[in-house]
Batch of 4 targets.
Target 1
Amino acid sequence: MFNQGLKEEGVRMERRELPDMNLFDAIISRRSHRGQFQDTKIRPEDLDQLLDAARWAPSPFNVQPWELLIIREIEGKIALADLTEECVADQFKNTKFLDDNHRWMRLTEEEWEETRDGVLLADHVNLPKIMSKDPTALRPLMKNAKHLGILGHLGAGKMPAKEIANLVRTSPLLILVLMDTDRRPPGEGAARWMWIGMGAMIQNLLLAATALHIGTQFVSAPLERQKDRQRVSNIFDLPASVEIICLIRLGYIDTVGGKSVRLGRSAFTHFEEYNPEDITRS
Ligand SMILES: Cc1cc2nc3c(=O)[nH]c(=O)nc-3n(C[C@H](O)[C@H](O)[C@H](O)COP(=O)(O)O)c2cc1C
């Protein structure tokens, strides 16, 4: 398979050497890249291709409600990194957020493979050495958001917050995805259809990035709360009609792909009629 070939060669590939990646390879090997990227600027021709992939997405009535704020300079990156640091540290103090997290946080790869959903804790925070050997020791703490929240107030979130902020600050490129709410299609479902168009555009962007060996990661922490989105809006002087949708960090990566899990087809598919018993997820 495509990834395997690249891994075996183990070399950093130049753009022109990239083997063609078919659509299914891109879909299956796209991953959220939570580590550092290569310290290389995104080439203008690659950025053009990302933007072309984005603009050919479907949208209701072809309204194309998207706007992309491309952030290459350090000032914008620092502003977003600082906000990310503050917001991640706050998340570690928020018992509701921690409680909700617990449902989807998998402590070991075995657990992750078994449930086939959620995220692996070690992909999100660098665990201290003693804990990384046996992350299940964290289970009682994870179950008790109140205690975890107290740790957050004592500063437990500071390190992960700094690490994520550093990733944001050092990313070759950030894209702040925006929606122009003035470009509404007709109909009562307008807002819903616009959001779907935004999702399609974002996925086009992510798949095109994968084909170009550009890793991507959503960074949601600084956009979680309305008050923080307002701060981002102020930082970039956005008009009130523009809604902030998401923030994506991008940069070249050595190897495409990586581990993730998904539920099987039968876990979400109904044929002809809806029957809850069709669904076979664990
Ligand atoms: C709307 C949205 C927001 C997300 N926010 C984050 C985020 O803040 N940080 C992060 O590391 N991944 C984020 N993700 C990535 C998901 O965690 C990831 O897609 C999922 O765990 C599956 O892993 P994969 O993308 O590597 O296949 C987000 C994904 C989506 C679609």
Note: The chain has a mean pLDDT of 91.
Target 2
Amino acid sequence: MQFTLTNHACPDTVARILETVPGWFGRPESNREYIDAANTLRGISVITTHGITVGVLLIEEHFPHSWEVHLMAVDAAFHGRGIGTALMKATEDLARELGVKLLQVKTLGASHPDTYYAKTRRFYEGYGFIPLEEHDLWGEDTPCLVLVKPL
Ligand SMILES: CC(C)(COP(=O)(O)OP(=O)(O)OC[C@H]1O[C@@H](n2cnc3c(N)ncnc32)[C@H](O)[C@@H]1OP(=O)(O)O)[C@@H](O)C(=O)NCCC(=O)NCCS
């Protein structure tokens, strides 16, 4: 599939894409935070040849050498076509260019039975992220898995 990447993700697009993946992002209050975050965080988008934005990623720059993928979502109709991989690769390329040494991402841990996030963990691990630890940052019922990738 052919697409282009831009160094920007706008809140309206984040909102539209999150609506396509309710299995992962079904809590309006959390979605609001992600949508608002697009106003301030560095973003990356994937746009098809028809001009439709089908994937977004937001980056939290904690320290000059350590970034976090704050949000990544691909329109459900376009899953499995390399768009998530392209977003991650663009993030890594930019991070390396700017001297970043470590990327992290947080997601739902394997001690929770959710099958949607099991796919997400497979994606991250398939991309080369290493599970670092699972903790209760999001509360006891929502295990938080931290994955890292040295660049
Ligand atoms: C996780 C996500 C970003 C991956 O994006 P994508 O464009 O579908 O991923 P790609 O097409 O680049 O796939 C990369 C690999 O992951 C696998 N994969 C991706 N999505 C998958 C899915 N839903 N189910 C099973 N495998 C999947 C692909 O098979 C591929 O493996 P391969 O390279 O061995 O063939 C996307 O599925 C998504 O938006 N999921 C919902 C939101 C989400 O999980 N966000 C992260 C929250 S922490």
Note: The chain has one domain: 3-150.
Target 3
Amino acid sequence: MLNFEILKTDGLARRGRLKGTHGETETPCFMPVGTLGAVKGVTWDKVEEMGYSLVLSNVYHLYLRPGLEVLKEAGGIHRFTGWKKLILTDSGGFQVFSLGKLMEIKEEGIAFKSHIDGSKHFFTPEFVVKFEEEAGVDIGMVLDECTPYPATYEYAKHSMERTVRWALRSLEARTTDATALFAIVQGGIYEDLRLRCVEELSRLPFDGYAIGGLSVGEPKDEMYRITRLVAPQLPHDKPRYLMGVGKPEDILEAVEAGIDMFDCVIPTRNARNGTLYTSTGRINIKSAKYKKDFSPPDPECDCFTCRNYSKAYLRHLYVSGEVNAVILNTIHNLHFYGKLMERIRKSIEEGRFAQFKEEFLKNYAETE
Ligand SMILES: [Zn+2]
């Protein structure tokens, strides 16, 4: 069961609360990515301490490893992973599409070869729903056809229409409301296709709506244009999720358009590359200029890493290939994202989101 409540609006921005069987999350929220059932570099206690109560995982990856049978025998995905709060799973449509030559789309579903051992598999919309229900996830995404960028109008139209047909099949395959089901809006960068997709999906009784097919290589202004067009048209009383986005500045832009939920690998992936997000922008801890810099990565941050360690030490760990470099960088980046969302929520509550956005961006530079 999923319950969504809007507590306050500020322009199109929404301050809400999402409640499920395994807890609740304040929105707008960011979901740390735990593709294989773990957020790389941090244990669950840390994830929880940083204020996260909803994480993202992935059907494609969990299906290949450890497999549905293992998840079921363990007593479900929460028992297996040890994460007791909310879990959302992406269907894996996006991952399958990034396999390129290893996959083939048919009306029935998607045939693909495992990126691990080349074995053959077939995903249907019905199977993805079954997987999500039997694994016991809180929010499942439907299988969609993720339109790549660039795509011709004809291609985008065809794949949007198929996504709508698959969404309908997903609903028909549903056997329980214990796992909420979100639809995904496709249509590439074509406004009429996006709006038609919204219109058709809005008629169906989904628990939430996502915008997919963005952050797939299109220019930033195209992503913003489509988000600003689509988000306000989605059902007002349902959560809205912008998939795979994004950078702090993208999140601010999308919140302004009325998006409630986000996920992105960058805070965790970049932590592993030595990139830290700070109140003045990104810094690269590898840089030689930090060799004797004994100040914390972000003087404005109160995370465990910034309270206890200097840039010089973090650089030393990173260049020496120490595992703790990943752990400490990840703690900082996830804390930064958590705080950003908290400040966004507070500014909406106080009716000053636009002002907050402007101030944040004034201090924040994309590169150092
Ligand atoms: Zn920090």
Note: The pocket of zinc ion is lined by residues 297-298, 301, 303, 305-306, 332, 335 (CB under 6 Å).
Target 4
Amino acid sequence: MARPLSSIPAVATSNSEVEVDCGHCGAGYVLPADRTSFACMSCGTSSYFHSCPACDVAQCHAQSIPIGTLRCGACGIELPTGRWHMYPAPADALDPARTRILPGLPLDPAQRLVRGFVTASSVPGLFPLTPCHLVFAASWVVLSVAAGEALRVRYSDVSSLQIGGAGTRSYSTNAGIRGGGFGLTGALEGMAVASLINAATSRTTTVHDTTLSLRAGPWAILMNADLYEPSILRVMLSPAYHRIEQAAAHRQPQPPAPRAGWYPDPQGSAAQRYWDGAKWTEHHPE
Ligand SMILES: [Zn+2]
Ligand SMILES: [Zn+2]
């Protein structure tokens, strides 16, 4: 029987445990090797481990909505979700190189991942519309693209992290025809025809709009993160905000440079000495 997640210690794993990151939000978990699924406590997404019905390669599928189809990461076949659920796989059948988002870094329950694509960037070689992953790991903020790591900065270098966009909105449009006609009968007929035309041409358009901007030293990245609602992303990224605030609080304040002028002798004599802004130069003539 699987243990509840809350009883699983997030420590170094033995052979009977497997380290897995949530594919939706990036939170790290240690799972018993025989588990075939887990629910992320951070974002609520359920992840299922399956063996591909076609090629038998074990893989993890994160699902926020349990309908539709899922694609095999190995052979590319796309099958209904229900078909995949007939082939559960234990966690230790997964490729260890693929269960972690950043395999070299320590497992971290407070790690967060934002998936999307680059809208604009000051990082050389990072072009608009490039799919990217922004990972807020324990000590680093890492931006990855298909070709590999594009940027790695420390939390103390992050000067701002902002979430924007209007979120998901739906618009309904139609031909906008109003009824009319001569006399009462004509008007009623006209209105009936108009409503038929409007019903036939009615369209609902759904627009997703979530943006994330990161500034760190000379680097700035604006990315589109439409998989997440802005309000949910703000809560999801609270561990990342906490780490940025902690790093800022521990940053060494730079002492203000004393202005050039005459000061008491730092050696302790009764004479005054002149500070030119960089070094002590001369004694005040008595
Ligand atoms: Zn999650
Ligand atoms: Zn396959």
Note: The pocket of zinc ion (ligand 2) is lined by residues 52, 54-55, 57, 72, 74-75, 77 (CB under 6 Å).
